[in-house]
Write a structure and sequence with these properties.
With about 475 residues, this protein is of the alpha+beta class. The chain folds into two domains: about 55-335, Spore Coat Polysaccharide Biosynthesis Protein SpsA, Chain A (Alpha-Beta Complex); about 345-485, Galactose-binding domain-like (Jelly Rolls, Sandwich), CATH 2.60.120. The chain has helices spanning about 5-30, 40-80, 100-110, 115-120, 130-145, 145-150, 180-200, 220-230, 260-270, 275-285, 295-305, 360-365, 425-430; strands spanning about 85-95, 120-125, 155-160, 205-210, 215, 240, 250-255, 305, 310-315, 345-350, 370-375, 380-390, 390-400, 410-420, 430-435, 440-445, 450-455, 460-470, 475-485. The strands form four sheets. It has a seven-stranded mixed β-sheet, sandwiched between helices. A six-stranded antiparallel β-sheet has the order 10-12-18-14-16-15. Strands 11-19-13-17 form a four-stranded antiparallel β-sheet. A hairpin with an 8-residue loop joins strand 6 (about 240) and strand 7. The radius of gyration is 30 Å and the shape is elongated.
């Protein structure tokens, strides 16, 4: 319980406070003489207080970041939950006016890792919003959609306190940018600073990503190989390994050196975009003012290594900055296929899902394009009836593609009709069956993929089909159909 000061003590404190405030002003007026008016004096003091306030705000944000790091250290100590991962992927996200790419990006990152890569990786999703309802909703969507990966520790979701951010309406106009753009890039600098501060104790290397990208298969192993190779080579004092030629995507840093970036971004968050600040930081570290531009460029090349071909591609066109359209693509990434052709066994194809334009199921089955159908309804079927019963070894159905990642099959099972099956067979106890005699052998997962092997004891199969069980808010796209015979 706190003590309440006496009236006399309060008056003494008030007098002392008054003296502390007024004495400097009195001394200042006495020394400056009659040339400076009281209004000018107050203006100077006000400017001084404003500068002091800006300093305190910056210190507060720095402390917030320190708390983020310390809380992790304390958590590691008390829970003995040392992640010990090799690579931390930072994925900042904010609310967009039109389309969100976050779920598709997370799906793509995870699906392009194998189990070993997942075990040495941590994905930190940073939700840079002050609307706590939106933060909670997004976090819940990630928790539900990627439940196994959240549970195993592959994904963490964080968000700063709303008080972390300064008053963006009071920012200085720099680079002759409109205020809205200054606010947007300044906030991004602070978002990256907080995310890096949280991520620093989590792993050996940190990679900055965005929430609207694609990655190549095995990207974790490729980055790890380069990082270890360059780190073990003492002649390569690298600071940035660049796995994408666009903006700040795919930039890898040693976690032990992140404090340089955090401090630099905090100091100049109002002045430049984050990718320009990175350039300025490298310039400051390695360029000699007594040398020419050519020498500076050569020195920077030793610390900023560009790796080709690129491992990441930017896919978003709707920027988080209102009115900005982002169409830049990394040419080093290569062409991204929209469908995957295969030679499939002869079959009669049927579906009640109406195709869009010329994206017919028959053409997709032949490997000419993808199947793209209008809104699936409960009970809709996509049937592959073989010309004669075949021994099917495996199946793979991939829904959605790069251009339309959300147009997938949801709540849809894969079912087969055996040519002949003894009802007393143990196979019946292995699988659930439908009322019309089909065995349910699989379903589409959260990534829009259905694949599996078929037990040879089932014997020849007359038909394999996809069975939709609920309404869908999206169209359905099959980008890959692969039925392999024994």
């Amino acid at each position: 319980m706190g003590l309440t000061p006496s009236p006399l003590r309060r008056r003494s404190c008030l007098l002392l406070t008054t003296l502390v405030v007024l004495l400097p002003l009195t001394v200042l007026i006495l020394f400056i003489g009659p040339d400076l008016s009281a209004e000018q004096t107050l203006s100077q003091r006000l400017a001084e207080y404003q500068m002091r306030l800006q300093y305190l705000e910056s210190m507060y944000r720095a402390r917030q970041e320190d708390v983020a790091i310390l809380s992790q250290y304390l958590g590691l100590t008390t829970n003995s939950n040392i992640s010990g991962v090799t690579i931390v992927l930072g994925v900042p996200t904010v609310k967009r006016d039109k389309q969100s790419y976050l779920m598709s990006t997370l799906q793509n990152l995870i699906s392009n890792m194998d189990e070993t890569e997942q075990n040495e990786t941590l994905i930190i999703v940073y939700i840079g919003e002050t609307d706590m309802d939106y933060v909670s909703l997004t976090a819940k969507q990630i928790e539900v959609r990627f439940a196994p990966f959240v549970e195993q520790g592959l994904i963490e979701v964080i968000s700063p306190s709303p008080s972390y951010y300064p008053n963006f309406d009071k920012l200085r106009i720099t680079l002759n940018d409109p205020l809205e753009r200054v606010k947007w890039r300044s906030k991004q600098n602070l978002d990256f600073s907080f995310l890096m501060a949280y991520a620093q104790p989590k792993g050996t290397f940190y990679v900055q990503l965005e929430d609207d990208i694609l990655a190549k298969k095995g990207f974790i192993s490729i980055m790890k190989k380069f990082a270890i190779e360059k780190t073990s080579n003492k002649k390569t004092p690298w600071m940035v390994l660049d796995f994408c030629q666009l903006g700040f995507i795919g930039k890898m840093f040693k976690s032990a050196e992140l404090h340089w970036l955090i401090t630099f971004f905090q100091m100049f968050y109002n002045d430049k975009p984050v990718d320009w600040l990175l350039e300025s930081l490298i310039d400051t570290k390695v360029c000699n003012v007594e040398k020419d531009h050519k020498h500076c460029k050569q020195e920077k090349a030793k610390y900023w290594l560009h790796i080709k071909p690129s491992l990441f591609q930017h896919i978003g066109t709707t920027s988080s900055l209102k009115g900005k359209v982002q169409k830049l693509k990394d040419k080093q990434f290569g062409k991204i296929p929209s469908y995957y052709p295969h030679d499939n066994p002869p079959a009669i194809l049927k579906t009640g899902i109406a195709p869009y334009k010329n994206f017919h199921l028959k053409r997709a089955y032949k490997g000419e394009t993808y199947f793209w159908g209008l809104l699936p309804q409960p009970g809709d079927l996509v049937e592959f009836i073989f010309n004669h019963p075949i021994n099917l070894k495996s199946y793979l159905f991939r829904s959605g593609n790069v251009e339309h990642p959300s147009d997938r099959f949801y709540n849809t099972t894969v079912e087969i009709l055996p040519d002949s099956l003894n009802e007393n067979s143990l196979i019946w106890s292995t699988y659930n069956s439908t009322t019309d005699g089909f065995l349910i052998i699989g379903s589409f997962n959260a990534f829009g993929l259905a694949e599996g092997n078929i037990d040879p004891k089932i014997g020849p199969i007359k038909e394999i089909r996809l069975h939709v069980h609920s309404d869908s808010e999206n169209w359905a796209l099959l980008s890959e159909i692969h039925l392999m015979e024994r």
